[in-house]
Every structure is written in C-alpha cells, then in structure tokens.
Description:
It contains 26 helices and 26 strands. It is an alpha+beta fold. It has five domains: 6-118, no CATH class; 127-229, Carboxypeptidase-like, regulatory domain (Immunoglobulin-like), CATH 2.60.40.1120; 237-327, Immunoglobulin-like, CATH 2.60.40; 411-540, no CATH class; 612-684, no CATH class. It is globular. The chain starts with 5 loop residues before the first strand and ends with a helix.
Amino acid sequence: GGLDIYRSALDQQGKWGKPVNLGPLINSPYNEESPFVTPDGQKLFFSSQGHYNMGGYDVNYSTLLDDGTWSVPVNAGYPINSTDDDLFFVPVKNGEFAYISKYIENNMAGRNDIYRFEIFSDMHPRKYLIHGIVSLEGKAISQNNPVTVMLINRIKRDTVQLIKSLGENGEYNLDIPAGDYDMIITAAGYKPRIERLLVPKNYKQGDLQLSSKLSVIEKETKTEEVKEIKPVYSPSKLEIRKKNFDLSEPGQVKIILNIENGETLDVNAYLDNRLIKTDKLNAAKGRITYIYLPEPGLNTLVFRLTGTDNQVHSDTVLVNLQGNAQEEEQTTTGLQGLSSVPDNLPGLLNEMKNNSQGNLKKALNELNLSGSSINSSADLIHYLIENAGKYGYSKEELLSLLGGLSAHMSINDLLARMTMSSSGNLKKTLQNIDPARDSIRNGMSLINYLIDHAKSGNYSRSDVLHVLALAAAIDTPDGNAFLNKLIAFSDGKTRSYLESLNIPSGIKTIPAITDYIYAHAGDKNVKEEDITQTLVNAASSYTLKEWIQKLLPYTDGNLRNFLLSLNPSAEKLYTPDQLIRFLLNNASAKGYTEEDLIRMLTFAALAKQDNVEGLREILASHSSGELNKTITGLVPQKEQIGTSEAYVDSLLVKTKSHGYTTGDLLKALAEAAYDGDPDDHLIRI
C-alpha cells in the first residue's frame, strides 16, 4: 500500500532489470521509504509508517537470510526512532555506524541536524570501562610485589583481557563487551582470588565502578567467599516455552510467554507469509498466555517485546494446522460452512438496519424476527435475496451493505491512522482523545471535535484537514490517484465537482491538493462539509489491500485464489463497492459463484459482531439456581438481543422478578471474566 520498496538487479551490460516488490513482509499497507543496504548486502534499513511504530515514520531493519529472503523487520527503537518522522537512516561500515537527520527538542544548533550513531551488535558489541582497586593484605603493591588481573569468558573460557602490572594504588581499568566473566587476581605468595563479573547486554548506565576494594590474602590464610559483582540493573527478556505446534484438527493454541521488564508486546500472525492478524498487548506482567486460533496451513506468529529499557526482543512460533478438516467442511454448500464464526442474527440485523438506505432499509425495518422462519443469519440473507424484487433493491446493494460492515474502520482505528499521519500539537491532542469519554462516535464527530479544540490545542483547522487527507491517501502513490480515490468515495454534486477539477501540475503534495479542493469548492456551489464527509468516508474505510486480508479467512477455493492474486491499484479499485462489483463481474471467468461471495461477506460481517451467545454460555457455566435458569432460558436470538451490554441489562432487569440478586449476577460475571488462565485475568480487564 502507498509507497513500497522494490529490488532491481544490475546485469552484465550495466542495465537495471525490472523492479520486483519485496513483498508484504517488508512492505506494510502504509508507506515505506528511504531504503539503504549495508555495503555487505546483509542488512536493509528503511523507514516505514507501518510495523507498529512509535509514531510517524520509524526506522526498521531486516537481515538477509540464507535462502535469499529478508527476515521480519525489527523496529530500531529509541533513540534512533521518536514519535515524529524518522527518515533517511544511512548505515556505514556494514551497519556499525549510521547517520540520520533529526529534530531534537531544545537543540541549540538548529531545527534538523545530522547525528552519528554507533550501532552495537554481536559483530560490533558495545564495550564498557570497568574501574576497580586491588589491595595486598599486609603489603603495598610494587615491582617486587606485582599483581596480575586476568578476565576469562565463563562460557567460551577465552582470556579476554590481561593486566600484568597495576599502579601502587592498585587501580585497574578493563575495557570489555557485555558478558559473563571470571576475574582472576594473582600475586606471588598470595592465593588467587576469583570473582564473577556480570555485565548485562542491555546495561545502559555508562562506565561501571566496582563498589568495593578487592583484597588478595596470603596463601596460609583461608580464602574468603567468592562474591558476584553485578550492576544493579535488570534487562528486559522474552522467553517462549513452546515454539512449534502441529494440529490435525482446528482448535485454540495456548502460547506461554515469560517476560521480564516488558512494556508492550506486538504480535503479527502470518499465513503462508501473508499478514492475517495483529495484536498489541500490555507486557508489564511476568507471564502471558497468548491464545491463538490458527487457520489451515502454516501460521507464523512473530512476537516482538519492547522492554522498559527500550530494547526490542523478537521470537517466532510456528503453528501448522492440516487442512483436511476445512476441506471437508468446504464441500458443504451455501452459508452453513465456516461454523467457527459465532452467529449473531439480532446484532447483524441491527447493524444492517443502521447502515442501509432506500428500499433495502425499508425491507429491513419491516422485518420482524418473532414468529418468522428466520432463525439464523443465513436465513436472513436468503430472505433478503429472495425478496429483492418485491422491495425494489438489487443483489448488488445487499452485497454492498454486507461488505461495508467489515470494510468500515472503527473510530479507534481511524483515530490511530490519523495519529500516525500527524505531528506536533495535533498529534498530542489525537493521542489524548478517548472516544467514549469525548462522545466521539464516528469520523465526522472526530473531525468536528478536533476543529472545535484547535485553538486550545495550538493547531489549525487546516492541520486537521491535512491529516485527514493523509489518512485517506494512505494507499495512493500520487496526487492523481488520491483525487481518483476521492471521486470513487463521493456522489452527487461533490463527485461532479471533483471530476471537473484540473489541478495545476505544480500542486503535488496531498495537503496542497486538499487546500486546492477546498479553495475552489464554492465556485461550483459545493459545501465544504460535503468535501470533509468525502475525506472521512475515504479515511474511514480500510484500504482494499487491508480489507482483502480481513476477508481471506472467510473464503476458500477459486475466490480465495483470485483475491490473493488481485492488485486493487492496478485495477484502479478504491472503494469496497468497486471491489464487490469487480468480483461479481469476474465470478464466472474465475470459477467461483455469487453464493461464494455472499458467504464470504456474511461471515466477515458476523466476525465483527458481538458474540452474545458466547457470553450466555460462559455465564451459564458460572451460575446456579434461579440465575442459571434465567440465563438458560434467555436466548439472545429468540429475544432479539444483539449486544452483550443489552444481554446483561436484561438480566439486571429480571433480578426483581426471577429470584436472584444483583450480587449473584456480579459474582457470575466476575467468575466468567476469570475463566481460563488466571495469569491473564488482569490483562483481560
């Protein structure tokens, strides 16, 4: 999506070959820029707006593997990355050093200055200066009484450093990389003294001053107990108990992670090298049980821990689910496959009512589930297909409505996308917004909130509209594509106006194009709020690349293969409606049916609904007496209850007439929340 990184080979005639995209492991749905490869060709440094950044563009690096592919990118972390844009990170000496232009607050030299970094690794380890003092019991150190200090690696047993003569005051300095060492102090006529010296890899407190003088005693005196010299410092750490799972049947996988001094844990799940799921967890706990529901095939989970010491640790878990079970399930017809998606008929119907219009909305509003033959979401979709002619809407309208339910971003996702595209005071305001607290329910209310708070937040209305436009343009490579995307998301007078625009060639950036669009809207009697609504619509929808990734788990066969091969940008597809129309037109040629498409969109829409039936089942297992009887009899689908909140409200109302108390219900809810691994209870809360 957006800007991607490509590779081109130089042939023997000095000509560059056809550029090849580095693929989804390197290129995220957002922009990747400023790639630099170390002189040995083994490491790729680049800046990305994706890959779970600290903010804006962050510098990431990837290592060339033995099979010629690039490893999963790793965020370079602080202090290379900041909450602003970090670009053009240029490595030298095979990545041991690097240069970057950065703005650092309170810097007196200027706004953006060039900085030089030294990058420590196994091949180029950080070294520490160790200061210490040795004394000889009863004698002074001199040429007649020389003292030798030897440092030996405890694992490799190599001599790292040897100091054969100390000054009269017994001082010594060791210049060593992090590691676990034995320090052996010897002197003629004295027993050797052995101390363990542990310097953690992530130790950041500068030079190490050993806290006590080390005395060497004469041979006839009993050797004193060996002590460990260790800086008071606890580095972050990530350990995974089991890293390989082979499953013959679908089911949950529990991945146990032991974490020390963690802050955040990012999880990326890939299916055959395609990103299918992301998670971000609080890693402050010492142990996390991550529950994963794999898809058929090879699932690769990349866990990335950011510690309180700003160090990043990565590890990988492989989950191989054999596809036989799904293949058998896929031989069934209609909407009955993929039964792992919880059915929530009331929730789906309510969402469809809220998001529909025209004759389709009329048909949905007139529908009464009570006493009807509609008992599942599959029944609902079949009913709507069969009655399309009666109410005067098309099958394409129905598919467009279903698709919109899974293609539309939540307000939190839109907030995150705009935050990523912002900087300065506006970014700070976006980071502090709580949609529930601030009564922000949709994209337009978010924009209105930001504009209303522009003066107090010390940013401008134009700043808000520019960031909104950048969020909308996340998958467009240039200004023309951005304008085409806005046209696709608009209608009526706004669409006609955008189609008539002839933007001057000198206006190229997204903010400048946005200003031009607003400046000339009045000439065509187009309201500014209509332009803003179009930008909100474009920014609030997942890019088609992102949406396709969300649809893939709910389809199979030829439709899945076609989606995997599809390049929306090449087909000039921007909106969910355009993609649905494109898929309908290609169904016959590509060997799938309209039923396949309906099935995929229905289950993708259901996957975003609240699993109220799941709540009922778990509450039933943690209740007894009259409360259990009430829960057993209160079936969400029968009572047309579409959300968990509404279900709990119904149970609260019944406390007065059904012989149980509010305390009974609270106890059942608490036990249900605690169900599973107790170590994860606080994380879930």
